[in-house]
From TrEMBL:
Organism: Scleroderma citrinum Foug A
Name of the protein described by the UniProt record: Oxidized purine nucleoside triphosphate hydrolase
Reactions catalysed: 2-oxo-ATP + H2O = 2-oxo-AMP + diphosphate + H(+); N(6)-methyl-dATP + H2O = N(6)-methyl-dAMP + diphosphate + H(+); O(6)-methyl-dGTP + H2O = O(6)-methyl-dGMP + diphosphate + H(+); 8-oxo-dGTP + H2O = 8-oxo-dGMP + diphosphate + H(+)
PANTHER family recorded: 7,8-DIHYDRO-8-OXOGUANINE TRIPHOSPHATASE (PTHR43758), OXIDIZED PURINE NUCLEOSIDE TRIPHOSPHATE HYDROLASE (PTHR43758:SF2)
A molecular-function term among this protein's GO annotations: 8-oxo-7,8-dihydroguanosine triphosphate pyrophosphatase activity
Amino acid sequence: MDATDLPPGLDGNLVEFVKGGCEFEWQSYTKTRFYTNAFVINGNKLLLGFKKRGFGANLYNGFGGKVEPGETSAQAAARELKEESGIDAPLEHAGVLIFLTEGTDWAFHIDVFSAHSHTGVPTETDEMRPEWFSLTEDSLNGNDDRLGISSSSDLPSIPYSKMWADDIYWLPHLVEGKKFRGRADMVKDGDQFIMRKFWFGAVC
Ligand SMILES: CNc1ncnc2c1ncn2[C@@H]1O[C@H](COP(=O)(O)OP(=O)(O)OP(=O)(O)O)[C@@H](O)[C@H]1O
């Protein structure tokens, strides 16, 4: 894909898998702040955390936060995973997401990581309550959540309706082990954010 067709902030040899909001312009930004987000898979289970406070409170997400000065994103991802869930995992880089939110002139740059094993027992912290979710196909692609049915396994389905709106576009790629990139410009709708303009793609 021609780099000029990509949303500002993304580069490389990428193949689009979904986009929306073509009638809007990409929001401009002058600064970037770096964050991490880590997803741990164990066989047919995915670990998510229910965020109890701060940005994204009351949503399920991976474990992550700000990259501190002097840290690499991989170091920050490991630190945040441990701080928020109590576990260690051999995290590998899986994707990059750029988010803008209405009214701010800076972009979230989120390095997303995944791991297929871990040590330690996921433990609730002040910030996050870890829970395992089913990775059956209907759970992962959001069919169970859309239809309000429980998963065919003994674990709950991935709760996309209680996650950031973008997650359903890239989480299945992460679980399949495909590298991805994406950008979403979010606007406030009542007390939640919705995507105004977005683009997600795979790394060739
Ligand atoms: C807009 N769409 C989004 N979709 C999915 N995840 C998103 C996100 N936007 C932000 N995130 C994640 O939200 C966390 C915020 O981090 P946040 O808790 O504020 O950081 P940190 O733990 O350093 O904060 P404190 O210093 O404790 O306040 C961090 O994992 C970041 O990756």
